[in-house]
Amino acid sequence: MAVCSSCGGGWTLPRADESELGAFYPDTYGAYVLEQGFLGSVQRVGQRVLMDFAVSRPPLDTLTKRPPGTLLDVGCGRGDLGAALVRHGWRVSGIDPSPVACELARSRGVDARTGTLGSVPLGPESFDAVVMTHALEHVAEPRVDLARIRDLLRPGGVVVISVPNFGSWQRRRYGTDWFPLELPRHRTHFTATSLATALKGAGLEPVSVRSGSDNGFALLASLQYRHAGRLVVTRGPVAWAMYAFSPVNRMLDRARGHGALLHAVARRPAT
Questions:
Q1: CA-CA distances (angstroms) from residue 41 to 38, 44, 61, 238?
Q2: Largest CA distance in the chain
């Protein structure tokens, strides 16, 4: 991994070839599928509650406080966030490389299209807002995709981005055992400075760039990596118990500063 001495951001090296990336995103990838049967029903209810809470909190409340319009969810996965925004009146389109995920997202009211920002044809200035939740760290050229987002936004439109915080105390503490590195899928590792610089370089005006806490999974997963070398408790049904750890995680973030997530809101200049 390379780390910039100026902004503190990082890059995964060596980079996986584009032809190899698909192997790291099987149809069973967590963001693509929902459990079936009773567990699936529980998961759907839980995800709906979590997403409805998320859109009422920063940074996503930037969207729910605005009059709804057209919105693009880049890396929409199975449509958890898009479905929540549909419930708030937004007309949501989505992009994701997974046909399986897009089919599921469409069943939840999201106009999901299979592909990437570089491959799916979209009209310029056709969206009032764009969200990119845990997607920017996956792309090969973040500034290129941010410039594409700028062109897709109407003047004054906003983009909301969430990524793992490479400048967090957890990453400094756990180093290569920090779970959100998620190598080799995560190709760029952002600090607040590097994310703000990338936004400005793409012609977007940062409104806010700040750290935040996750649900505690990153810390508990990093502890497992450090002491067991693997995930003993996975993202499956047992992992829901980890939400009980969330208040402790938030207290640690407040005490040490710089939580595991990084949130940015930026706008396309009105003129």
A1: 5, 5, 27, 15
A2: 54
Q: What is the DSSP letter of 193?
A: H
Cα within 13 Å of Cα(104), Cβ side: 22
Structure tokens at 19: 């032809």
User: Full-prediction pTM beyond 0.85?
Assistant: yes
How far, in Å, are 80, 103, 136, 148, 238 from residue 43 at the CA level?
11, 18, 25, 34, 12
Give the C-alpha distances (Å, rounded to integers) separating 213 from 86, 117, 264. 25, 28, 14
Residues 70-87 have pLDDT tens digits of: 999 999 999 999 999 999
- 3-state SS class at 121: coil
Nearest to 270 by CA among 121, 140, 158: 158
Cβ neighbour number for residue 243 with a 10 Å cutoff: 14
Residues shown for the chain: 271
